[in-house]
Specification:
alpha/beta, Alpha-D-Glucose-1,6-Bisphosphate, Chain A, domain 3, five-stranded mixed β-sheet, three-stranded antiparallel β-sheet, 14 strands, 18% strand
């Protein structure tokens, strides 16, 4: 589980349900989502359960199930589980929770794996933001082993402060501390530590796109990037695509979601993929995005190159990009919205190959998301406004 106050209660409930079905459970306590995926994949387990709501506030919580392969369950299996849970609830049977005792050896196995995935130590001065989440138990032990001198922030969870103005979604405090201390760089995890973002010595935010560039070019140089390709999503910046092209690396795009990235990686035999948000999958090492593993790979690249993070990311010329969320009263296929289609086509005609438009609906909220990328901020503002107005006109703006 992560550090939310509802975690222990949910863990006991899950363990009780498993026990009634004759399934024994071992409890890793506070651990990262990728840590559970690693243990499930390498240990004598039929499945793993992570209790977390990732980057959401503490009031939210959820249950992620991982199969023995280390991958998330297929959609049809999740739907079947939800159906069975609904049937059980309808029967009004009383739950019988089982109290769990933490098995510290599970955390040790995961930390050992991460530490052994690098061939060197990192005696660097770092600032690390644990988001008051899962990384607070694992990260200090790992980075201490690797010789880093770390200024820890947001590493005192109280059950309610997970992701609260900290972590990978709130980088202001990390930027400020890096600049104040003169640290080599800063690292920020989210609540369950399956993603990581970085801040350079000069205070520049280094996102998942930049990590894909660093890792992709490093793997290409060492002959470990099959097919000279990597996988990203429709949200990755055009600047990343251009920077990779200069190295002969192709970038394939998928819909938003690490699940879709992983599917395409497996289909294409790719070993590297990820999202701008910091989910990066190094398939040579893990079956999921892993913030701690991503941090180790970035540190490794910096040390091998002998350069700073600021210098390494200079080659990426980021195109101005803007995302506008339009709250709508209904969702209809874009093909049924002629005014929206007309604006999208007009924008694409003006951009040529120097810009992109992505319009999609949120899967969980009544929102249309409009992303525009172009060579100038003026063009970005112009077309996000026009497309958003067309959506409001055709679908009705919701209060």
């Amino acid at each position: 589980m992560d550090t939310r106050e509802s975690g222990p209660w949910l863990a006991d409930q899950v363990a009780g349900g498993l026990s009634r079905s004759g399934v024994r459970a071992r409890f890793a306590g506070v651990i990262t989502t990728p840590g559970i995926a690693y243990l499930t994949r390498t240990g004598p387990f039929i499945a793993g359960v992570m209790i977390s709501a990732s980057h959401n506030p503490y009031q939210d919580n959820g249950i992620k199930v991982v199969s023995h392969s280390g991958y998330k369950l297929a959609d049809e299996v999740e739907l079947e589980l939800e159906k069975l849970m609904a049937e059980w609830l309808a029967g009004q049977e009383q739950a019988a929770p089982a109290q769990l005792e933490m098995d510290k050896s599970l955390d040790d196995l995961y930390i050992n794996y991460l530490a052994n995935s690098v061939m060197t130590r990192f005696p660097l001065r770092l600032v690390i933001d644990c988001a008051n989440g899962s990384a607070t138990e694992i990260a200090p032990r790992l980075f201490d082993r690797l010789g880093a001198k770390v200024d820890w922030i947001c590493a005192s969870p109280d059950g309610r402060n997970i992701n609260l103005n900290c972590g990978s979604l709130h980088l202001d405090s990390l930027q400020k501390r890096v600049l104040e201390t003169g640290a080599e760089m800063g690292i920020a995890f989210d609540g369950d530590a399956d993603r990581a973002l970085f801040v350079s010595r000069d205070g520049k935010i280094v996102d998942g796109d930049a990590v894909l560039f660093l890792a992709g070019t490093a793997l290409k140089r060492t002959g470990r990037l099959p097919g000279s390709l990597l996988v990203a999503t429709v949200m990755s910046n055009l600047g990343l695509e251009r920077a990779l092209e200069a190295y002969g690396i192709a970038m394939l795009r998928t819909p938003v979601g690490d699940k879709y990235v992983l599917e395409e990686m497996l289909n294409r035999g790719a070993v590297l993929g990820g999202e701008q948000s910091g989910h990066v999958i190094f398939l040579e090492y893990a079956t999921t995005g892993d913030g701690l593993l991503t941090a180790l790979r970035v540190l490794e690249i910096i040390k091998d190159s002998g350069q700073t993070l600021d210098t390494l990311v200079e080659e990426i010329k980021t195109f101005p990009q803007k995302l506008v969320n339009v709250r709508v009263k209904q969702k209809r296929p874009l093909t049924e919205l002629p005014k929206v289609q007309a604006e999208i086509e007009a924008a694409e005609q003006e951009f040529g190959d120097s810009g992109r438009v992505v319009v999609r609906f949120s899967g969980t909220e009544p929102l249309a998301r409009v992303m525009v990328e172009a060579e100038s901020q003026e063009k970005v503002d112009k077309w996000t406004g026009r497309i958003a107005d067309a959506i409001r006109e055709e679908l009705g703006a919701s209060a």
